[in-house]
Amino acid sequence: MATKHEQIIGYITKLQIGEKISVRSIAKALLVSEGTAYRAIKEAENQGLVSTIERVGTIRIEKKRKENIEKLTYAEVVNIVEGQVLGGRKGLHKTLNRFVIGAMKLDAMMRYVEAGNLLIVGNRDQVHKVGLEAGTAVLITGGFDTSSEVIKLADQLELPIISTSYDTFTVAAMINRAIYDQLIKKEIVLVDDILIPIVNTFYLTMQNTVEKWHDLNKKTGHSRYPVIDAQMKVQGMVAAKDVLGASKSTPIEKVMTSNPIVVKEQTSIATVAHLLVWEGIELLPVIDQASKLIGVVSRQDVLKALQMVQRQPHVGETIEEIVTSRIEDRSSGDRLSFICEIIPQMTNQLGSISYGVMTTIVTEVGRQVLRKHKKGDLVVEDITLYFIKPVQIESTLHILPKVLEIGRKHGKIDVELYHEEVIVGKAIMRAQLIE
C-alpha cells in the first residue's frame, strides 16, 4: 500500500495544469496532517510538478521533459525577477517561447511580438494592451503598475502581466542567465538517460531459490541480480560469490547481500561512477521516489556515457569547461608539458588565479597524463596542493607533470606549475582508474 507521502504526490500529479493548491486544501482532501502535506508539496516542487510564487501561492505546472528544459514558465520568470503578478494568474503555468524587449514605437514593435512570447516593457499602458491582444504575456520593468482595464484583459485572456522593480537590461540579463543555467543542466547526463528499464531487467524475488539464479545465469550470462519483495522494493543483491557452494534449494534471502547501494533516476553519472569505483561493484539497482525498482545501471553503461559526454559539443559552458579549454598539451617525446593562459574568468577579486581554478588545472592535466597510460576515466581520490606564489591575470602557466606511480586501479602524479621559470604551485594527485 502507498504511503501518505506517495498518495499526496499521486494526487498532485493528477491535478489539472494551472490549478492552485495549498497545504490546507491537500490536508483536508486527503485527511493528512498539514506537516505531511507541506513536506509532500516541497517534494513535488523538487520534482518540477508545482511552482510556488510569493503573494500568489502554489500552482500545478507541467513537468518539463529534458528536451524542453531550457524553456521557462511564466511562474519561473516571476521568481527570477522577484516580480509581482498584477493579473492573468491562471496563465502562470504556460511556457514562454522567447522574450522581446519593447523599446521602439508600437507599430515597429508589433512585428516582433508573437503569441507565447514575453514582452518586456516600461510604463506604456497602450503597449501592455496591444501585447496581450497579440497573445503575449507582459513584464513591466521599473516597478510601474498598469491600468485596471489591462489587468481585466489579462485575467480574461489568462496571460500573466508581471511587474518588477528591476530595469529592462537587468531583467533581460537575469532571464538569459536562467536559460543558460538550464542549458547546462540539460547537458548533465543522469541515470534516467542510461538505465536499463525494468522490462529489460532480470531480477530475483525473495521467494526464489539459488536454482533460479543458475537458470538466469545460463539464460543471460549475467552474474549479478537485484532481489525484490512483493512491493517491487529492492531488498538485496546476489552475485556469483554469494551462491558459490550453496545448494540449489537454498532460499535467495539466505545468500543475498542485504541493504545494497541503490541510486535514483535523477542521480548524475559522475556520482554513479564514483560509487562503482569506490565500492568496487559492477551493477546498481535504480529506484523511483517510492523506492521501487525501475531498472539497473551497469559499469559499462556508465563508462560509455562518460566517453559520450566528453566527445559532445557543449552549448552552456561551466567554469570547469572554460578552464580545461585553455589547457594545451605541449609534450614532446617522454617530456610531459602543458600550458594554460589565465583569462579574467579564472581570477579572484584581486586579479590572481583562484584556488579553485588551480585545482581544476591540476586535475585536468593529471587526467590527460593518466589517459596516455590507461584507457577509461578516473575518480580523484585526493589532492595535496601548495600555493607558492600568486599568478596574475593574462599570465601563461607552464605545467610539468610527472607520473610517480601507476597500477591497474590507481595512479599517482606530481604536478609543478611555473610562471616565467619560477615555481608558483606544486601538487600531488592520487586517483582511482575506472576500467
* Overall pLDDT confidence: 84
CATH architecture of the largest domain: Roll
CATH topology of the largest domain: Thiol Ester Dehydrase, Chain A
Radius of gyration based on Cα positions: 28 Å
Unreliable parts:
none
Identify the CATH class of the largest domain.
Answer: Alpha Beta
**Widest beta sheet: strand line-up:** 17-18-20-21-22-19
InterPro entries: CBS_dom, CBS_dom_sf, Diverse_CBS-Domain, DRTGG, HotDog_dom_sf, Ser_kin/Pase_Hpr-like_N_sf, Thioestr_dom, WH-like_DNA-bd_sf
Domain CBS: 195-254, 256-318
Keywords: CBS domain
Protein name: CBS domain-containing protein
Overview of the structural elements:
The chain is α+β, with helices and mostly antiparallel strands and 435 residues long. The chain folds into 4 domains: 4-60, Winged helix-like DNA-binding domain superfamily/Winged helix DNA-binding domain (Arc Repressor Mutant, subunit A); 66-184, 3-Layer(aba) Sandwich (Udp-n-acetylmuramoylalanyl-d-glutamate--2,6- Diaminopimelate Ligase, Chain: A, domain 1), CATH 3.40.1390.20; 192-307, CBS-domain; 315-434, Roll (Thiol Ester Dehydrase, Chain A). It has helices at residues 4-14, 23-30, 34-46, 74-80, 106-109, 125-133, 148-157, 168-187, 191-194, 210-220, 240-243, 252-255, 269-279, 299-311, 319-325, 355-373; strands at 20-21, 50-53, 57-60, 84-87, 99-101, 118-121, 137-140, 161-163, 196-197, 204-205, 225-228, 234-238, 257-258, 263-264, 283-287, 293-298, 327-329, 338-341, 377-387, 396-406, 410-419, 422-434. A 6-stranded antiparallel β-sheet has the order 17-18-20-21-22-19. It has a 5-stranded mixed β-sheet with strand order 4-8-7-6-5, with helices on both faces. Helix 5 links the parallel strand 5 and strand 6 (118-121). It is flat and about 80 Å long. The mean pLDDT is 84. Keywords: CBS domain.
